[in-house]
Structure formats: C-alpha cells, structure tokens
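Our consortium's second objective concerns turning raw sequence data into structural hypotheses that experimental partners can test. To show how far this objective has progressed, the report includes one record in full. It was chosen at random from the queue rather than selected for favorable results. The single chain below, 160 residues long, was entered without modification.
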Amino acid sequence: MSQEIAFTKEELAEIERLKAQYPESKAAIMPVLWMTQKKFGWLSEDVMRMVGDVMNLPFAHVKGVATFYTMYFKKPMGKFHVQVCTNVSCMLRGGEEIYHELCDKYGIGHNERTADGKISLEEVECMGACGGAPMIAINEDYHEHVSMADVERLIASMAD
C-alpha cells in the first residue's frame, strides 16, 4: 500500500506560515523540505514536484536544494537513522571504530539501510560536540561520549 502524496489542510497552512516569515516565499524551501521529509521519510522526485507546486517553484530549484544538502534523504532510510561522527575529535576517541563495527554488525555502509528497513547508517563530519566525542545521533537524538555498547543499547531501547 503506497502512501498518498499530498499535504493536509493543516500542513498547507503551516507552509503558508513558513512562507510568510521571509521577504520572498521561496526562502522557505528548506523548512518546507524538512517538514516534508518528516512526513514522508524521504524526498522522492514526486514529493519534490509536489513541494514545487505548493511553493510555486520549478522542480529543478526544489531538486537543486534537496540534492545540495545532505540532511535531505533522496532515498528511503531506516526507521532509526544512525549518524556516526568520524571527524578528528570523534575519530581519535573511537568514532571510526564504532562506525565500522556498525557496518559489520548490520551489513550496511554509508547511507544504506538494512533489508527490514529498521536501521540506516551514515558517516558524518563534525556534529559540533567535539568535547563530547565520540558522538552519534539516532534520528534527532544526540548522544555524546558513546561506546559501541552504548550505541547497541540505544538502538535496542528504541526498537522496543
């Protein structure tokens, strides 16, 4: 069963509210794409076309923004999207090891998801918490000073 590609009346009202916050309504594209990704889980070309229609923007503009920023997913990701920082501070404190252990454990790599759609994995640059290295994010929840055991425990607790 496929999900209908449409905004609710409430979502359309929120888009209008976002557009009204900017001198030019097209500047609201990023928060509208973020809202849309939260609704659909990722930004398919059909979804980007719908955003373009609602925002009165060409599809090429919407796709250009969505493909420029890595925060927008252009393919389905897991229910639990695990981001592991491997930049310098995190790397020195075990971030790379955590990333590689997760790759091995789940049999996936960068921006891939498990066959059951439960977990996706992303290697990321700086997440802005060098003092808390190593750091991960699971969906929108950030965790500092983590070990592989901590990561496994966090993933298991979310799956319950």
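The partners drew two points from this record. The first helix runs from residue 9 to 20. The chain has two domains: 9-68, 80-159. Both points have been shared with the crystallography group to help prioritize constructs.
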